[in-house]
Write a structure and sequence with these properties.
40 strands; 5 helices; 22-stranded antiparallel barrel; single chain; about 750 residues; globular
Length: about 750
């Protein structure tokens, strides 16, 4: 699917196309970009410059204008409007995964990479969680679906989220925005840009601050509400352009977050457990008694929690430097992207969900990463027949993590528990790649695109897990298994690639068919729950095979009636070998495992209408059918043929946006409505009934006024206007391992409102 309803928006910056990566000339681009046609939007999904409607792959674009019009500032907000994309939330950003066409990394192991690659200004983020921050002065977000290993590398087996931010400009200007809303939400955002030395050196400085009280009511007197937000980020850019041929951009950024996140609420409180009366530790309550003491009623609409503020935390800090160099030789251009980044997270939570019962009080991990990347790329032409892109890529990352899990609950008989588990691990990753893709223009209408990538990976992991008694006077039993010390090297080579056939039937109608094979590298299991039985060699660690997706795709792209009607359809079929995911052991520990074969097929369709009879009105709608089934699972053959977890079968969205002049003034008024719906799903790998999530739809409304030349404006918005109660995800709990019934949920936000004022100069 090439577009989302967001594609009805135009790029919201003055430098929307001129800073796109230089490459071979694209098909002609219309000059009427103010009309916001998809034909006017430049994308770099193939690391070359082309219009969105001419790109022969499934890519959705969220423009800067779309983000302005919706007020969305995080990926979790906008994915509802991108067909085939969603997020699976868990109790830590480390395990939360973005899903594209139902595929994501779902693991607590720091030795696995993501299936969805996040790229910011050409720099690949080594950990997916680094991308779960506020958008900062974004020019566009391209969501590229299906395996993209040919050009974007090994951690893009499901797709890529390609974020491009605004570069400095030689004309002084800026923007500022302030918002206030429900739960004392306060947002401040601003950017300023301008020349330093004539038309040779320019700067851009951008900052954002986002604070919100918790959306879950804390039932413990004097304790803060949970799932709050408190983040800020700053980015600075310098643009050095001594000639038309050479452009150098130096970027530095920092981000800090301090949140009491991410706590589920109790959806089901199970019956009394027969084991709890035998507890060797004090202060253990039956779940129903613990909730009753806090006046919490478990249920689908439960937004109350009973967790002390010092027992849940997620703190992040990240930053980096990047040097982007572009040199245009004429028919060929050279791009070099050199980057260093660091990312740290310190997170822990009350695993049993109630601080007044001493069952399982802490799950926590601190992780620190440091990465260096280098990409060299050539884009060019050979005569009028061949356009090409090719290059070399290097990625290095050092990761250091320390985990701790406390299970205070003890028994005088097996499995004993009363155990503190510490797991320290390191992972060093090096990846080398050479890639290239050529477009053979057989005629003005027909082209064949062939690309490939060779990747060489080396990984080295160290691991040390130790279990000790919390109460030395009582017996204890290792929850995750015996103590483990392991060292595991891994080397792997892979060739991935794709072949695309594209045909322009007219200037307004294009079709394509494609075959592609992707790659996600082998994963080393370094989670607290390392399965000793899966170790293949003494002193080693479990290794999961690489993920290998094979995709067949066909698409139709149209822009008819002078761009008044855009219709796009994509159909696809994909086999994914060795999906890296998790299941649960008999005692409830998460265990990393590979699914032999996952098979998916789907349809993505969209219509965008701009009626000529009603200037200022844009209507768009999209529909996605995504059928993802487990085709072969050797470890659990009973799951063969089941729908893969956390995958709704159907999605649709409708967006209406109307803008008009107010009388004879230069003021503009606007109304906007956004509706998105998804069918029922199940979030348990085994398909257990307790994890059934009902179908639901969400309505967002927005109204406002813009001043002359859009120099200032005010908007009022309501999200989830109908106050729909819905669960993003349903899962078990520590208590479920004792009573067999209890369940928790990550409940969606209630109705919220926000007022925003902004200005630009």
């Amino acid at each position: 699917m090439p577009l989302s309803p967001a594609a009805a928006e135009v790029l919201g910056t003055d430098n929307d196309t001129k800073d796109a990566p230089k490459a071979t000339p694209a098909p002609p681009v219309s000059d009427d970009s103010a009309n916001g046609s998809p034909n006017d939007i430049i994308v770099s999904a193939r690391k070359t410059r082309e219009t969105l409607q001419d790109a022969p792959l499934a890519v959705s674009v969220l423009t800067g204008e779309f983000l302005d019009r919706t007020g969305f500032v995080q990926l979790s907000d906008v994915v509802r409007f991108v067909p085939g994309v969603s997020i699976s939330p868990l109790n830590t950003a480390r395990a939360t995964g973005t899903k594209i066409r139902g595929i994501s990394t779902f693991s607590f192991s720091d030795g696995f990479e993501s299936s969805v690659s996040t790229v910011v200004d050409g720099v690949v983020l080594g950990r997916e969680a680094q991308g779960f921050t506020d958008f900062l002065d974004v020019q566009s977000i391209e969501v590229i679906k299906g395996p993209q290993g040919t050009l974007f590398g090994k951690n893009a087996s499901a797709g890529v989220i390609n974020i491009q931010t605004n570069n400095p400009e030689f004309k002084f200007g800026g923007r500022a925005e302030a918002s206030y809303g429900s739960f004392n939400e306060t947002r401040l955002r601003g950017t300023v840009t301008g020349p330093i030395v004539g038309d040779t050196l320019a700067f851009r400085v951008t900052g954002t601050y986002n604070r919100r009280d918790g959306v879950l009511v804390n039932a413990i007197a004097g304790q803060p509400d949970l799932n709050d937000r408190d983040t800020y980020a700053v980015r600075g850019k310098l643009l050095f352009q001594p000639s038309d041929a050479l452009k150098i951009v130096l970027t530095g950024d920092i981000e800090r977050g301090s949140n009491r996140c991410c706590q589920p609420t109790y959806r089901v409180a199970g019956p009394p457990s027969g084991a709890i009366p035998f507890a060797t530790n004090t202060g253990v309550l039956q779940l129903r008694d613990a909730l009753a003491a806090l006046n919490i009623v478990a249920g689908p609409s439960n937004r109350r929690v009973g967790v002390r503020g010092d027992r849940i935390f997620e703190g992040t800090n990240s930053g980096g430097l990047a040097l982007n160099l572009d040199y245009d030789f004429g028919s060929t251009s050279l791009t070099s992207i050199t980057a260093w980044r660091q990312w740290n997270i310190d997170e822990f939570n009350e695993a049993d969900g109630v601080s007044n019962s001493n069952l399982n009080s802490r799950n926590g991990t601190t992780v620190g990463t440091e990465q260096f990347t280098q990409e060299l790329r050539l884009n060019g032409k050979i005569g009028s027949v061949v356009d090409y892109v090719g290059g070399l890529y290097f990625f290095h990352q050092d990761l250091d993590a320390h985990g701790r899990v406390d299970i205070e609950f003890g028994l005088p008989f097996p499995p004993f528990f009363n155990v503190r588990t510490r797991a320290d691990r390191t992972v060093e990753t090096n990846s080398y790649a050479a890639f290239g893709e050529a477009t053979f223009n057989l005629s003005r209408k027909a082209s064949i695109i062939v690309g490939g990538r060779y990747t060489h990976d080396t990984l080295l992991a160290t691991y040390n897990r130790v279990s000790t008694a919390i109460n030395p006077a009582a017996p204890f039993g290792a929850f995750f298994g015996p103590n483990v010390i392991g060292v595991q090297p891994v080397r792997n080579d892979n060739f991935s690639g794709r072949v695309i056939g594209r045909y322009f039937w007219t200037d307004d109608i294009m079709t394509y068919v494609s075959w592609s094979r992707g790659y996600k590298g082998p994963g080393i299991d370094v989670a607290e729950s390392v399965n000793v039985a899966a170790v293949l060699s003494p002193g080693g660690l479990p290794v999961l095979k690489p993920e290998i997706p094979t995709l067949y795709e066909a698409g139709l792209r149209t822009a008819l009636f002078d761009k008044a009607l855009t219709t796009n359809v994509t159909i696809y079929s994909q086999d994914l070998e060795n999906l890296q995911t998790i299941t649960q052991t008999a005692v409830g520990a998460a265990q990393n495992i590979g699914i032999d074969l996952l098979r998916s097929k789907g349809i993505e369709a969209e219509v965008i209408l701009r009626p000529k009879a009603l200037p200022g009105l844009t209507l768009s709608g999209s529909y996605t059918l995504n059928d993802v089934k487990i085709a072969r699972f050797t470890a659990i053959p009973a799951l063969n043929g089941r729908q893969f977890r956390d995958n709704a079968h159907d999605f649709y969205s409708i967006v209406g946006d109307y803008r008009t002049k107010l009388g004879r003034s230069d003021f503009e008024g606007f109304l906007r409505a956004e509706w998105n719906w998804q069918s029922a799903k199940n979030t348990d790998l085994n398909g257990a009934a307790f994890a059934n999530v009902d179908a639901y739809g969400l309505l967002n409304l927005r109204v406002g006024i813009n001043g002359p030349d859009n120099r200032y404006g005010i908007a009022f918005s309501v999200e989830n206007a109908t106050d729909q109660v819905y669960a993003n995800y349903i899962l078990g709990s520590s208590y479920r391992q004792l009573d067999g019934t209890s369940a928790t949920q990550f409940i969606g936000d209630p109705r919220t409102w926000r007022i925003t004022v902004r200005t630009k100069f």
